[in-house]
Amino acid sequence: MPPLDLQTNDLSHVVEADRAHVWHHLSQHKAYETIDPRVFVEGRGMRLWDATGKEFLDGVSGGVWTVNVGYGRESIANAVRDQLIKLNYYAGAAGTVPGALFAQRLIEKMPGMSRVYYSNSGSEANEKVYKMVRQISHHRHDGKKWKILYRDRDYHGTTIGTLATSGQDQRAMQYGPYPDGFVRVPHCLEYHAQWDVENYGERAADAIEEVILREGPDTVGAIVLEPVTAGGGVITPPEGYWPRVQEICRKYDILLHIDEVVCGLGRTGTWFGYQHYGIQPDFVTMAKGVASGYAAISCTVTTERVFEMFKDAPEDVMNYFRDISTFGGCTSGPVAALENMRIIEDEGLLENTVAMGNRLMDNLTTLMDKHAVIGDVRGKGLFCGAELMQDRATREPMDEKRVQAVVADCLAQGVIIGATNRSVPGFNNTLCLSPALIAQPDDIDALTTAIDKALTKVFS
């Protein structure tokens, strides 16, 4: 049943205000001249209601993989309210109680890491790493080791700096020119294999070494990678990939930056995606699920070794990290993050994510047996994708408009799913699912039943 106020209140004025004044993200607004923009009013658990009272099952956790613990968490809202009355903000040049306590709790989940730098978005968290790497280059390498490697199909943010490391060409188109020193390495998606070898994971990692040798190891300071590629097609790394990447980074003294903006805080069934693969990064960045969207927060987490590089010459007035993020000083973020973490622990949501992720993958595999248009299913935890193909044999990608027709049909059924969107030219063909970590068997089955019906309708 929809919330009671939606049964009686006329919200047409809200819709009109939205149409007249709001510039939506990732949206072509021409359509809103003839149709109403969708305005969501309330959420509970995994359900949403819009201004017309229609109910939706949210299979993408707020549209962009964020609301990990679900909607309507009063305990998070109450914790934020109580903190804002006590102290809402002070710039990050000083500390706050929730900032200190969440940093401590976070580091407990990240063996080998030790320091937390707060900001307010994933893009900003990644940009901080790039600045740190460049400052280390100037301070310790005479300006060398300034280049940052990034991977094809990965995405690291929407600023000019982070778009310079976008492995999704459509994300970056028309926003350049970009700064120098950012160099692409090949993706590791075995389904669209670039090499005909048995040990594909190691070969994909070796391709990184080839780029390093081409550029010159003394010019490369860091590499940024997603543990599981998100918007570039939900790409899980092949076996052997990550250990070889770690080996290469240590061989050439290259800092390893893991972008956990999507995967962090439980999405893959561990606290962080990289923890599946037995590696030790130098930087870990996170944002979306840190507070499940109840407050804006992102974190750039480093090792003590990296941290020491910014205080080992106190007589040098340029030695420390001369950066600030205004809203990194908000207390609402870390206090919401503390309660978010408690919920994940107390409700066993990591374990639930593994169990429900297995169910989701099993259901998608069953759909692949039924629908020839599904060429591949892949994922980790509650972060899964189904790649649609025109021909399984040739692995020719499905036309993007037909992929979006599947998404639209699910939406008409009251089920929200995603698909790769304005990312990789010719390969915006993967259906994306990232339900909240609270998902139950009926929720998982409802998602895949809707996809089943949509595939039947679109491709019959």
TrEMBL record:
PROSITE patterns: AA_TRANSFER_CLASS_3 (PS00600). InterPro entries: Aminotrans_3 (IPR005814), Aminotrans_3_PPA_site (IPR049704), PyrdxlP-dep_Trfase (IPR015424), PyrdxlP-dep_Trfase_major (IPR015421), PyrdxlP-dep_Trfase_small (IPR015422). Its cofactor is pyridoxal 5'-phosphate. Gene3D superfamilies: Aspartate Aminotransferase, domain 1, Type I PLP-dependent aspartate aminotransferase-like (Major domain). Keywords: Aminotransferase, Pyridoxal phosphate, Transferase. It comes from the Bacteria. Pfam families: Aminotran_3. The keyword Lipoprotein does not apply. This is Aminotransferase class III-fold pyridoxal phosphate-dependent enzyme. It comes from Paracoccus fistulariae. The lineage of its organism: Bacteria, Pseudomonadati, Pseudomonadota, Alphaproteobacteria, Rhodobacterales.
